[in-house]
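Final report, Chapter 2: Outcomes

The project's central promise was a pipeline that accepts a single protein chain and returns its three-dimensional structure in a standardized token representation, suitable for archiving and comparison. That pipeline is now operational. To close this chapter, we reproduce one record exactly as it appears in the project archive, with the input sequence first and the structure output second.
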Amino acid sequence: MNIDLTYQNLKNTTLEGSKFITAVPLSTLEGVPDDQVIKMLRSVDQGAINIMTEVNNNIDLEKERLLNEFTEFYHSGSFLSKLAKEGYTIEKIQNLIFEKNLRLQRLQLVYDLDFNSTESIKKSSGVKYDMVKINWIDDQGKRVRKISKTYGKSGNSGLKFSIPKFFEDHFEGYSNPILDYRINKSKVVADLKATLNGEDWVIEFVATKKSDFIENAVRLEMWKMYKETYGL
């Protein structure tokens, strides 16, 4: 168990700021010319938000907090002395180090995803689907298969119909989805309109590859597992 290596790997890991799905409040598009609506839907510089930005920021905040906590614990002689005074035996301290190292490794998986993507075929119809098998680290520190999940029909053709399910699984307050939504009777058709926490949003699928969608969906699954494991 190379704790310093685990620490450095997590410290040096970053999330790329991929623009996967953008969203704009429907109310802000009232009376806006079509050409400007298109710009607003596609660019965070024009008023859209990247729906993964808040998630990625929360992951980075947990990383910073965890690294600081681990540094204080592992490299502070005063902290170890405090544990000894509280009656911690060497064995208990070793177990605590293992648990903290395990948490670092699990958060690392949220950054460096561990999954396999394959095609599965529905025998009755012959339709191909994207099947993803996601790995995790168990309480003994071993790599295990945790989730097997289908992400819609195989390839880019299945992307549009996978997105509503993606929102349903990972975003609270999501309801009333409408695909191919015409904005305010204009010529602009957004990929999706949906209600998020009581407000109507129009949503554009900026990612053009199914692999981009799967990567972001898997990251949300890993982040969900991490939060559930540690009660966040």
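Archive annotation: The beta strands are 21-25, 49-50, 115-121, 128-137, 143-153, 174-182, 189-196, 199-205.
This record, like all others produced under the grant, will remain available to the consortium after the project formally closes.
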